[in-house]
Design brief:
Elements: H1 12-18, H2 27-37, E1 46-49, H3 59-74, E2 78-83, H4 93-105, E3 114-116, H5 121-133, E4 137-140, H6 144-149, H7 168-180, E5 189-192, E6 207-211, E7 225-227, H8 229-239, E8 245-248, H9 255-264, E9 273-276, E10 280-281, H10 288-296, H11 311-317, H12 321-331, E11 339-340, H13 342-354, E12 359-360, E13 362-363, E14 366-371, E15 379-384, E16 394-399, E17 402-406, E18 426-429, E19 434-442, E20 448-455, E21 473-474, E22 476-478, E23 482-490, E24 513-521, E25 531-534, E26 538-542, E27 553-559
Parallel strand pairs: 1-2, 2-3, 8-9, 10-11, 12-25, 14-20, 18-21, 23-27
Antiparallel strand pairs: 4-5, 5-6, 6-7, 13-24, 14-17, 15-16, 17-22, 18-19, 19-20, 23-24, 25-26, 26-27
The structure holds adenosine-5'-triphosphate (ATP) and magnesium ion.
Length: about 575
């Protein structure tokens, strides 16, 4: 299906994405088709999404989730959700649960394929002994600093460890003692014996196991040695029969080690590692380390703060999972590093909410209008809940003697082309009547406290015989139909389009949230929807956590590109 959508921005990259064919085809899918056709893959396609449970998932992870689960779905395969839990110092059960919730929320189901690297600790350890017995690994007593100092650089070769030539028997005994808890944290490591002069630094006798005396959230005190990511990941992939191990480009230089490990142990499956570019989004940092700092230093209210690029934050802001999936599909999968414009995500959110969110009127900074020629019972008016979709039905509006409009819809000193209310001028109240401003009432300090207006009974919307031609239409809420709410409008957390993960503090936006009081049509409470389009303002999401509060809270999910 070819989607052609009007979009003001003329950036060619963005235009291309917005008018793209929505059927995904990329180099990874092409590779899978080839592997299936030429018999390289002999069973169903199996992928995995391998998060480390040391933080919440962010929008970047969504790309990887959509890719891994997406291709397996398309090819009738399976996907594991495998936690890469090899560092007990930073990981926790709380993060495991948060990640499961987010993957589910995004719309993916791992069924009974929920695994943990720690499920395989026995097997991984057995492979470590096997490498020792084959003379492919040795126990090294150098400290972390010494390891670093002897590793060499991109332009100089590394130095062999003085412990490199230990006998197989000695290495085996030392490894077993490491496992038995005879050595202090950090005192010894198991290293692969590859090549200290390799141009690829990852191949310079990399560490496979280290001693950490710390309780693990799943295995408790059972282990005091933990395998490194590079040793663990390839083995888990092979044990699970992963047909395509998809990861981001920073692992390209680790591929040689991935292959070396699988080539040097007795395992009968060798998945290919295929790299794609990370998702980078303007004004956003997708690094768990930085996100953790934002949380720890209390720049935000937790991992799920609506300003955070975490999936939990996006959920709390009201971003629908379908919009994120659409976004990931449009971003596509390539090997080119680039930064995606935030307009694309906003566009996907609006497209999704357009058909989900009923409309209503909201007055943010209420200014009282007293309709001096109105008396008696309030007038009941009707309006559509949605301008195009009749299935949303009709709502009732109230027009009475006291009306609120937004302060920005009145000006005593209007700028040129101002189409709203001015002293002596007329304006239409949306879905209702035309009013004329007769008098501006101020307090002693000169502050406007109310406008006295006249309404024209024969100007009723849809049945206007007044012959008046107001230039503008503004929204209103009648006092008898007004419900006070709190509105939270969010801006980017970072002012820079490309904030750096080392100097992010410099670009932090100190005005990333604006809280204001507003009045909304009371009748919205008769409906169950959480997503609303506040006319002229944007799409808003009713905070589920605040239902019992006196004043409900609405988060701005996204502003409106089109204004009426
Ligand atoms: P971070 O860099 O934020 O700490 P990470 O890569 O350490 O993230 P993991 O939990 O190891 O986080 O990531 C799980 C998977 O998600 C990995 O396969 C990783 O390649 C992928 N991933 C992480 N960040 C992105 C991103 N920005 N775009 C696409 N995929 C990503
Ligand atoms: Mg990682």
């Amino acid at each position: 299906m070819l989607l052609c959508v009007p979009f003001k921005k003329t950036t060619t990259g963005l235009h291309r994405i917005l008018t793209m064919d929505t059927t995904p085809h990329d180099f990874i899918r092409a590779r899978i088709v080839r592997d299936l056709n030429d018999g390289t893959v002999k069973h169903e396609i199996i992928t995995r999404f391998p998060p480390e449970p040391n933080g919440f998932l962010h929008i970047g992870h969504a790309k990887s989730i959509c890719l891994n689960f997406g291709v397996a779905d398309e090819f009738g395969g399976q996907t594991y959700l495998r936690f890469d839990d090899t560092n007990p110092l930073t990981e926790s059960e709380g993060f495991v649960e948060a990640i499961k919730k987010d993957v589910n929320w995004l719309g993916y189901d791992w069924g009974d394929r929920l695994t943990f690297a720690s499920d395989y600790f026995e097997q991984i350890y057995a492979f470590a002994e096997e490498l020792v017995v084959r003379g492919c690994a040795f126990v090294c007593d150098l400290s972390a600093e010494e390891l670093q100092a002897t590793r060499g650089t991109l332009t100089t070769v590394g130095q062999n460890s003085p412990f490199r030539d230990r006998s197989i028997d000695e290495n085996l005994t030392l490894l077993q003692k490491m496992k038995a808890g005879n050595f202090a944290t950090g005192s010894r490591v198991l290293r692969a014996k590859i090549d200290m002069s390799s141009p690829n630094l990852n191949q310079r006798d990399p560490v496979l196991y280290r001693v950490i005396h710390a309780a693990h959230h799943r295995t408790g005190d059972q282990w005091c040695i933990y395998p490194m990511y590079d040793f663990t990941h390839c083995i888990c992939d092979a044990l699970e029969g992963i047909t395509h191990s998809l990861c981001t480009l920073e692992f390209e230089d680790h591929r040689a080690l991935y292959d070396w490990v699988l080539d040097n142990i007795n395992i009968n499956f060798h998945p290919p590692q295929i790299e794609f570019s990370r998702l980078n989004l303007e004004h956003t940092i997708t690094s768990k380390r930085v996100l953790r700092e934002l949380v720890d230093q209390q720049f935000v209210n937790g991992w799920d703060d609506p300003r955070m690029p975490t999936l939990a934050g996006l959920r709390n802001r009201g971003v629908p999972p379908a919009a994120i999936r659409d976004f990931c599909r449009r971003v596509g999968v390539t090997k080119q590093e680039n930064t995606i414009e935030t307009e694309l995500l906003d566009f996907c959110i609006r497209s999704d909410l357009e058909e989900k969110a009923p409309r209503c009127m909201v007055v943010r900074d209420p200014l009282l209008l007293e309709v001096t020629n109105f008396s008696g019972e309030d007038i009941r008016l009707t309006a559509n809940w949605h301008p195009k979709l009749t299935e949303f039905g009709m709502r009732e509006l109230v027009f009475g003697r006291k009306i609120y409009i937004d302060q920005t819809d009145f000006s005593e000193d209007p700028p040129p082309k101002y189409k709203r209310l001015v002293p002596g001028g007329i304006v239409r109240l949306r879905y209702a009547f035309i009013v004329r401003c007769d008098e501006v009432v101020k307090d002693d300090s000169g502050k406007i406290i109310c406008l006295k207006v006249t309404y024209f009974p024969d100007s009723r919307s849809g049945n206007d015989t007044s012959g008046l031609k107001p230039k503008g239409v503004i929204q209103f809420v009648a006092e008898n139909n007004a419900l006070p709410i709190e509105i939270r409008d969010y801006e980017h957390l970072f002012l820079s389009k490309t904030p750096s993960s080392s100097t992010w503090q410099d670009s932090l936006n100190s005005n990333s949230v604006a809280v204001s009081n507003a009045l909304v049509e009371r009748t919205i409470y008769a409906r169950s929807e959480q997503h609303w389009q506040f006319e002229r303002m944007g799409y808003y999401f009713r905070s589920p956590g605040h239902d019992s509060e006196v004043k409900p809270v609405y988060h701005r999910t996204v502003s409106l590109s089109q204004r009426w």
